[in-house]
Structure formats: structure tokens, C-alpha cells
Write a structure and sequence with these properties.
Length: 233
Amino acid sequence: MAAGCRFPYGEAMRRIVEGVRRFQREIFPQKQDLFRRLAGGQAPRVLLVTCGDSRIVPDLLMQTEPGELFICRNAGNIVPAYGASTGGVSATIEYAVVALGIRHLIVCGHSDCGAMKGILYPDTLRAMPTVAAWLRHADAARHVVEALYPDRPEAEKLELLARENVLAQLANLLTHPAVAARLVGGTLDVYGWYYEIGTGAVLAWDGASNRFVPLEAGEQVPRASPRPRGVEA
């Protein structure tokens, strides 16, 4: 582009296009062998359901490479109960579990979540009826917070709601037949995480102790899923 020529689509898109060019020029050549392998298909083993918030960058947070994560993003990291909404989230989960053979499924919420703010302050959603309807899939989390923490400060309520929402969506997830069958058979594990944007901390729901615990490196990653029953002969 000639010096002094303004980018016709504005600064934000200029940065995006320059990023693509930099990727093609600098990053792609370094990972060319990886992309050649991925060009023929994918075999991820982890499905991540997380929020569409621009501050959540899964491959940065988890230090993963292309091809490792199958990602489903939406407002509030919602998983509608099976049959409640035949849409992209349910289809993505079913495809990941059945077609791709996903072995691990993470539902990850986060701090300062705009969707959770909408639940706490429903008047802010008057001009967004579609968002309001979508967030009804988090009603269970809202009721838990109202029942157990009615007198907590608003900032604390927001954090509690985001964590309870992870648990509510895990409960919804277990209503999906493909998920339920594989959990029983021991071929799928489910995890519930909460990411704190300002500190980088990640908490994981430990189904054995019924609490969120710091996610630490080690052989045992806290699971939210029930113990598999297996198949008796």
C-alpha cells in the first residue's frame, strides 16, 4: 500500500489484514509440515466449549497447536439441554463426540463475563431479546446464586454466577445422549473450568470433592464427570 494511503476499512481491519499477511509470510513457513499434515484431516481429542468473549484465546491460554482443540464458542459458554434447542452447540457436541471421537470435553467460563452481567441485570437486555432468550439456558445458575448468596456484593455475585453457570452447563451437557453413553462407558471425560482473566488463574471443578480447585500440572486432572460404570459381560 502506498505511503500516506488510508486503509479503506478502518484501523481494526487494517490490523487484521496485516496479521494475515504476517502469518503467511513468517508463521506459516515455520509450521508448514504441520499444516501439510492437517490439510488431509483433523483428529483432535479435546472439545472446548467456552465464551465468545474476545479476551478468551484458547490456543494462547492452553498453549496448543492447530489441530489439537475442537472449539465451540458462544455467549456465556452455554450448552442447551438436549432437545431444548436444536442448534449449532448441540450439533457441534454431537459431531465432536460421535464423528471425531473426542475423549475430553471442557466447559470453560470466565471472570467479568458480559453474559453473566446480562443475567444479573436483565434490564440491560431489553434491546437484545435474542440474547435474553439464549441466556435462559443459564436459569439454573441464576436461581442457585439467588438462593445461596442473596446478600453477597454484586462483584462477588458475578463471579459466583460465572462458576455456577459452568456447573449448570455441565448438567445440561449430561442430557445429550452421545455424551451420556460415552461417560457411562468410560470413553469420555468432562471437565468444568473457570478462567480468571486478570490473573491467568484457572480453577477446575473437582467432582470428587464438590468444589473448584486450582488447576495444576500433574497426572490427575480434576474431573467433573461421574465415574464410568462400564459394560458388564
